[in-house]
Specification:
about 120 residues; alpha+beta; Translation Initiation Factor IF3; four-stranded mixed beta sheet; 4 strands; about 25% strand; elongated
């Protein structure tokens, strides 16, 4: 079992790796790591999941199909950002549009993929 100091050291190391990573994500994303959002998703619960993943993994990928689900995702990111700021984590995100055919239906949809990751706050010199 690791001590609290070892956990803090590992967390700080992971945060430093995330801060130094380029803003473009890896092309291969594990599908199990993607948070899928619908228009009925509770933004507060999603915000908790985002904040938790940011603290642990350092990056969150959110998929949303349709205007209602994108709305819920953006609300959740705003709430998560408010929760993370007091601990010194500035959350940023950027979107990517992906055209995809759904497996159960034979129609083409556009998935809005949101990449969230922390950035250090800007300091005034």
């Amino acid at each position: 079992m690791r001590t609290a100091a070892e956990k803090d050291k590992q967390r700080l190391k992971r945060q430093e790796q995330v801060r130094n990573r380029p803003l473009t994500p890896d092309p291969e994303i594990d599908p199990k790591c993607i948070l899928k959002v619908s228009s009925t998703t509770d933004p507060n619960k999603l915000a908790g999941a985002i904040a938790s993943e940011i603290r642990v993994e350092g990056i969150v990928v959110i998929d949303a199909i349709g205007g209602g689900s994108v709305n819920q995702a953006i609300k959740a990111i705003a709430v998560a950002r408010g929760w993370l700021v007091p601990s010194g984590i500035l959350l940023i995100f950027y979107p990517k549009l992906i055209d995809r055919t759904l497996e159960d239906e034979a129609r083409e949809v556009t998935v809005t993929r949101l990449f969230c990751q922390p950035r250090e706050p800007l300091t005034m010199v």
